[in-house]
Amino acid sequence: MSVLNVVLPLGSSVLSFAFAALVFDQWWQRRHSFQLVWAIGLLWYGISAGTEFMGGAFGWTEGLYRAWYLIGAFFVAAYLGAGTIYLLAKTRFGYFAGVTVLIGGLLSLLFSHLDAKGTTTPAVAYMTITAPLPAPGWAVDPATHVPVGSGYPGYLRVLTGPFNIAGALCLVFGAIYSAYVYMPKRRVLPARLGVLAIIPNFFASLPGAVRALLRGELNSRVPATLLIALGAFIPGVTSGLNRFGVTWSFYLGEFLGVVLIFAGFLVSEEVFRTFRFGLGLRQRRAEGG
Q: What is the value of pTM for the model shown?
């Protein structure tokens, strides 16, 4: 048993649960739907990493493996991406999100040669719980002892596309879009091109954003959202590598991902104001009660 196979998932799980509690606290104060969806997504992140910790520390079981695959492969990126869609649905990013979900579904169908039997969440959950698994009931890389999805039949593995691809892309590009909104802009393409202009204009605006950062004039949401984008991108890459048999980076990418997203959460000045207000609100209620 590798120590990293225990320590990294445990760190990811504990940090995710703490992070979920902070985001839930924000939702409790403001009641924005995207905050609740993000909190649920972080809760799934913590549970998924917790199954990896349990498997690494005490050994895998069939039930643990099924929980890991259902939550990690389907729920985590989907809920975090859905939170971004809720936040940005009324902006130009909403069009990108719709196209992204469509691309995820098309990629899933492209690589599938079997009947997928539906892609709704209840159907996926039912198939994950009931799908036949070869003995011993789970699958890990024999070299790294990291869990892999090869224990599941192909018709189920291919369904991760609409959930993971769409969810991860929405989270990454949603964060980039948010950074672009708050950074000083240099437009190389006209704004009337909508989503097509965002990425070129974003990269053209980066030098000005760096200068504003060095002068202390950059909106705190810019580095915050860029950290979130990087934190979403890294585990997306390492999860993809896991599907192709490169498993050594899987737990590391998962840990770095939640650390960077949490760092982005903390960098935002608004987060600190909101959190302090939450503490003050609870204190006033205690004094008044």
A: 0.82
